[in-house]
Amino acid sequence: MFEQVILASECDVANEVICAPADVKELFELPTVFHIGQLAVSRTMILIFLAAFIVVALLYFGLRKGSVIPSKFQAVIESLVQFVRKDVAEDIIGPEGVRYAPYLTAMFLFLLVGNLFEITPLINFPITARMAIPAFLAIVTYVIFVFVGFHKNGFRYLTDIIWPKAVPLALRWLVGIIELFSTFILRPLTLAVRLFANLVAGHLMLTLLLGSGVIFIWNFAEAGAKSLVGVAWFAFGLGIFLFEIVVAVLQAYIFTLLSAVYIQSSVHPEH
Q: Where are the domains of the chain?
């Protein structure tokens, strides 16, 4: 992470108070690591597969034995799985939520690992800071809740959205337009953008604050008293670092929770 700031632009520690690249996109355009034929494999792609591998490994080694007296590791993994199944899938969707628990669990763990890459040493880059990942998962959730809506309710799923009978007759057309736009356009869009924006913001703050702090402190001889600015940036960055752990967990939970809410609205549209 720090190397990106250093290489992105030459920092004039004597005249600047923070080191930033000339183009902020440089913090996200990770270089190609190797090629497979014509396919360029970037660091982001490797991190995506790494996150998936970690999730599979956690579930496999955490659940394979199923001991009556679980180890601490098994207890943690079982608690995470039970949390998503009970507190998210079943409590939000209802008894039918068990059917969607595997998807919600896999998505929650994948997002959790991918988000925590932001504060992982030698990685320092959340894969969800690339719009493709939140967008893809939001589209998958969109396809699921739309398919479930039509499968369980038929064409009435669409007519109940366009013409909500619980609303006074004079307002049904207006509410129907709003609900139609919200259900089929805003839901996947806001689901993806919320996750993407929060992780991008955190990545930028950590990179600029911690990176600038290290550079100013390292160049004490040239920066002089301005090195104190670097100390302040670094201290503030450490505070943001701790805060981003909470953000990483919370955003994975919110994305999973909203996915369950959207599925529930298709399973039980009367609610």
A: 2-54+99-267
